[in-house]
């Protein structure tokens, strides 16, 4: 999926989670995130594409992309729940040193997971449980296709409707 599609699905997931309390073991309740949690969510949403040379994050953080490519190809190890969980644990550890709310790490993981699930909608798919399972979760939406753009627009519109319903007097 393209960045704008990840952001559309990410906005929809974020706003649904924002208006509904979700509790994760060890990380706490993920409702009403502050600015820092939102930033970590967005970072989680784009981090898996660090293994793609043309992605937004790879163009901004070249060194991280170069290091990642030593260990993984695009949609390889970085595109797995295992890597997301390891990064989340690392972030949680660092946040605990400064006595920040561990739910911030939970928001990173949710963003990471949303990215993986949107990539799983493409024919290339993702090995969601690598390295524990070789199974590839895939769908029919081709990256950059008209179908992706239309679905992304529908998802974005749904997010805006939820925002309008919950935070304005428009609906």
**Which strand order spans the largest sheet, edge to edge or round the barrel?**
1-2
Q: What are the secondary-structure elements, in order, as H or E?
A: HEEHHHHHH
Main beta-sheet annotation: 2 strands, antiparallel
Rg of Cα set: 16 Å
Strand tally is: 2
- The figure for the number of domains is 1
Percent in strands? under 5%
- What share of the residues lie within helices? 55-70%
Give start-end ranges of low-pLDDT stretches. Answer: none
Compute the separation of the termini in Å: 31 Å
Average per-residue pLDDT, rounded, comes to 87
Principal-axis shape equals globular
Number of helices: 7
Provide the structure class.
mainly alpha
Description:
The structure is a single chain. The protein has 171 residues and is mainly α. It has one domain (3-167). It has 7 helices and 2 strands. The chain has helices at residues 3-19, 35-46, 56-60, 62-71, 81-97, 103-119, 146-167; strands at 23-24, 28-29. The protein has a two-stranded antiparallel sheet with strand order 1-2. Strand 1 and strand 2 (28-29) form a beta hairpin. The protein is globular, with a radius of gyration of 16 Å.
Structure at a glance:
This protein is globular. The chain has seven helices and two strands, in the order αββαααααα. 58% of the residues lie in helices and 2% in strands.
């Amino acid at each position: 999926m393209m960045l704008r599609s990840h952001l559309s699905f990410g906005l929809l997931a974020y706003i649904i989670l924002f208006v509904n309390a979700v509790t994760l073991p060890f990380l706490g309740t993920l409702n009403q995130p502050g600015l820092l949690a939102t930033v970590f969510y967005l970072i989680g949403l784009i981090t898996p594409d660090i293994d793609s040379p043309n992605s937004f994050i790879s163009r901004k953080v070249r060194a991280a992309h170069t290091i990642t490519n030593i260990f993984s190809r695009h949609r390889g190890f970085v595109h797995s729940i295992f890597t997301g969980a390891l990064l989340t644990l690392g972030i949680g550890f660092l946040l605990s040193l400064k006595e920040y709310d561990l739910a911030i790490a939970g928001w990173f993981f949710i963003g990471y997971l949303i990215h993986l699930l949107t990539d799983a909608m493409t024919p290339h798919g993702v090995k969601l449980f690598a390295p524990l399972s070789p199974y590839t979760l895939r769908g029919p939406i081709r990256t950059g296709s008209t179908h992706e753009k239309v679905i992304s627009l529908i998802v974005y519109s749904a997010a805006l409707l939820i925002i309008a319903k919950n935070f304005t007097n428009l609906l």
